[in-house]
Amino acid sequence: MSIDGLVTFVGLVVALFALATDARRKALLLRRGVTVTLTILFGAAVLYLELFSVWAPECGWRAEVCRVLVLDGDKPWITPQQAAFVLVLAWLALVLLNLQRKALGARHLPRLLALATALVEEKRFSELNRVTQPHLGLIAHVGSGALTASKAQKQAATGLQRLLYRRRDFIQFIAMERPKTAVEMMAVESHIVFEFADQILRSLAEHSDSPLFTEVYDNQNVFITGYVFPEHNTYLSFLFADARQAERLGAWEPVMEAALAHLAEAKGGAYQAYLNGAADRFQEEERWRDRTFVAIRFLDLMVDAAMRQGIEWHMWLYYTPHLTKSLLGLYVDPRKDEEVFDEWPTRNAYLLYAIFGALTDWVEAIAHLPADSPHLVLESTAASTENGNIPKSAIIALGDCLRQVLIAEAVSDRFKNYLADICFRCLDKLPRDGDLAGFRRSMIASLIAGGPLRKKDHLPRLLEAFGDLDHVVRARLGDFGEALEQALGVWKFRPGPPPVGQTAPDPS
């Protein structure tokens, strides 16, 4: 390599460095110590070889040694220019190898914080994500004290955590645009993660064009052993493939609270009018962009995964009575007094059906749980809560939801009977005898008690719904009929109106 060639090569390197983005240049300089050291050593060696004929000393040693060290003469084994070219290639390879290393050490964190701060100030979130994402583990370990570091390095790690986990506009960006980074950050074991995860999930739940809606739509697989969560569904796979992550982060709260807030704001507005419109196409593609429906599906996926994986917690499936109450508060059926044969008279009615469908699915799943599942063990068959048992919790919530529907004046009798029929058919599938018979007794108790509050204002309407049930199914539910008769303190149950001269007593 001649002097001109060396100058040309250096010029190309400088040009490439100048063309790189500011973030990229600063990221390269995070490891400037190694790069600068290599450049100085190899640069000095190359310059020495280029000027070898000027300042190279004569070799006064043995002839064999001099043949290797002396590069000029009549027959050199390699010329100084060739040796310089080899050294330039070696320098380039070592620098590239150094830059390819993703891992940083604790000593790099102050420089990384300075770079991240500059990028945040300029709102260059894509570059910020690219620079910091490979080092999330290092930041967490230094910040928590798991790695030995100086005071300045710990302060830098804490500063980076605050910058990445509490900057709302950056959180919004990665929630919508960088799901893989979002789940990596949620996977970090640190107290700062919980508020971050809450903001991520709430942001996803509040925007119908978010990745969460796409993933829920894409995760419609149904298996007897539960749902499968493919890796391309980044959020759902992270939270539910191992549902302990959802439990650790309390994934139910931001999603369900966002849904309840959305319903609370709908009174008298466009969304209430939308809910009370006809459900003609809602059950097809339209529902997958509805915030309330996607929240119900999210809860279904989460609770089912936790139950199948033996997590002893109800995963706050008790949001279903709150959703039911909110939907009933918005319920208007323009055709309530007409003879309507639509399965779901309104979109609101379809959402209520989705809630009842999820609850009964969780109850009926006992037939497919492994024999050693903790969810097959009941403490009591009374209408009382058991927070560690998902099917029992679903039974209690179902009783509450059905009671609310039966006493709701806005709901037509036909649709009340429809939802009650879903509950009765679920009860019919539960065994009368054997180890699982306790679930049947629990469900009878919950339907009659109206959930954990044990009210009776719904019993006359429950009696009517039971009387309108298909006679074949009703015949198989004699135990329920007897319990209902005892609760009402009236005549032995028979379909139709009460006998002449008898009236139903006040259940209170």
TrEMBL record:
Stretches that traverse the bilayer: 6-23, 35-57, 77-99
Keyword list, A-Z: Membrane, Transmembrane, Transmembrane helix
Organism: Brevundimonas pondensis
Protein name: Uncharacterized protein
